[in-house]
Design brief:
Length: 134
């Protein structure tokens, strides 16, 4: 198991359009927002060198992002590392005793993704992604 790079850092925001305005003002080019129905969020990516920023706005009061905002307010929601083989990575993580949010990867916006529970990683939600077509 080896992480290749930081794929993106995700920020939970109250308003995606406001966040887009702010980060455009900082000089970022923001991609067209898209909905991720399985997470009940609207998301947008901005490239920064080899990595990206991801902005997440909740679409429902009971989504994980909405709960995060209620508890912690706006800020860094998760860090995503790219891996070459997500199945193998999840197997290794389980073997090492990490708690996974779900056992199986799901199809995200840019590839297969899975999450390590913040409880087993010092309060940080970690996402791993195996990119397809990127
Ligand atoms: Zn992400």
């Amino acid at each position: 198991m080896k992480f290749k790079k930081i794929d993106h850092i995700a920020l939970a925001v109250k308003s995606l359009s406001e966040a887009i305005k702010t980060f455009k003002n900082l000089g970022f080019t923001i991609e067209e927002p898209h909905e991720i129905p399985i997470m009940n969020v609207k998301a947008a990516f901005a490239k920064i060198g080899e990595s990206q920023l991801e902005f997440l706005e909740s679409l429902s009061p009971d989504s994980a992002v909405s709960k995060f905002l209620q508890k912690k307010g706006e800020g860094i929601h998760h860090i995503c590392f790219e891996v070459s083989d997500i199945q193998k990575t999840l197997q290794d993580l389980k073997q090492k005793g990490f708690q996974l949010v779900s056992e199986k990867p799901t199809q995200g916006a840019q590839g297969l993704v899975a999450f390590i529970h913040p409880k087993s990683c010092h309060g940080v939600l970690i996402e791993v992604v195996e990119k397809n077509g990127y």
